[in-house]
Design brief:
alpha+beta, 2 domains, five-stranded antiparallel β-sheet, two-stranded antiparallel sheet, binds flavin-adenine dinucleotide, Beta-Lactamase, 9 helices
Length: about 230
């Protein structure tokens, strides 16, 4: 598609003053974007798609022009998601979410989709701009990491010791049941912070240990818990 054709397709399109950048250049950027971009009317009937949209969905431009975006629906996304989507965009707000989409060949994919209303000079909705990418692989990897974390935690849960893994900001990344019990005993006060403070008081140089990849052993710290006779 050339810029002139798009201009004819989108009557009433307001072209802002782009300074040194011409509208043709903006069009070339959209055409060459690696993200699937579509422009629709107020009912989501498609007026424009870029080449990345064709590659991702498997549909040629001429097959989808005039069709509703629902052509991409795999009919697996809960209808409440569409209610939220339409409530947001008709309220002139942008919407971002993940939908189950279907390529031309029937293959399902997870689409991370952004929709923004394009307003005219009167502030009314002229078009909707949709930008989406395939996040199927990212989602599968996230699920895999989640499963692996659950597996590691179930192994750690069977250990009769407190185990906790935290990052440099002391955010807990992984823990076990014994740690969670200690957290309960401390009434929600994060044991990791107390433990690190106690280690520092024992003279353990935690920064050097982290920096040099060293460990430490044979170091005892004592946590006195309010309301309990025995220390931990
Ligand atoms: P329907 O039964 O037609 O709609 C389900 C519900 O959606 C309805 O009950 C209603 O609450 C709401 N709804 C649908 N159309 C309208 C409307 N015109 N006005 C108000 N509410 C409405 N959908 C996808 O599945 N994948 C996409 O990639 C995708 N991209 C989109 C990009 C843009 C720019 C826009 C504007 C919409 C996009 N949609 C997409 C939404 C799509 O247009 C359909 O609304 C959706 O696919 C549901 O269609 P359906 O035929 O499955 O169900």
């Amino acid at each position: 598609m050339r810029f002139g054709e798009l201009r004819a397709t989108l009557p009433g399109m307001v072209l802002p003053d782009c300074g040194l950048l011409s509208p043709e250049l903006f069009f070339a950027i959209v055409q060459q974007s690696p993200l699937a971009i579509s422009i629709t009317d107020h009912k989501a009937d498609i007026l424009y798609v870029n080449p990345a949209f064709e590659t991702l969905t498997g549909y040629d431009r001429d097959e989808v022009l005039g069709e509703n975006e629902s052509i991409l629906s795999h009919k697996q996304t809960p209808v409440t998601v569409y209610h939220e989507l339409w409530a947001a965009i008709q309220g002139k707000c942008a919407w971002r979410g993940t939908l189950v989409n279907r390529r031309r060949n029937g293959e399902a994919y997870l689409a991370e989709l952004n929709i923004s209303p394009v307003l005219n000079e009167q502030g009314d909705i002229s078009f909707f701009l949709g930008i989406h990418r395939d996040v199927t692989e990212v989602h599968a990897l996230e699920k895999q990491v989640h499963h692996q974390k659950a597996l590691i935690e179930s192994v750690l849960d069977s250990a009769p010791v407190v185990v906790v893994l935290f990052d440099a900001e002391q955010n807990v990344i992984l823990d076990n049941q014994a740690y969670k019990k200690l957290l309960g005993d401390l009434r929600g006060c994060e044991p990791a912070g107390l433990f690190l403070d106690a280690l520092r008081q024992e003279g353990v140089d935690l920064e050097a240990i982290c920096r040099d990849g060293l460990g430490f052993a044979e170091t005892e710290v004592r946590l006195d818990i309010a309301g309990r006779v025995e220390p931990r």
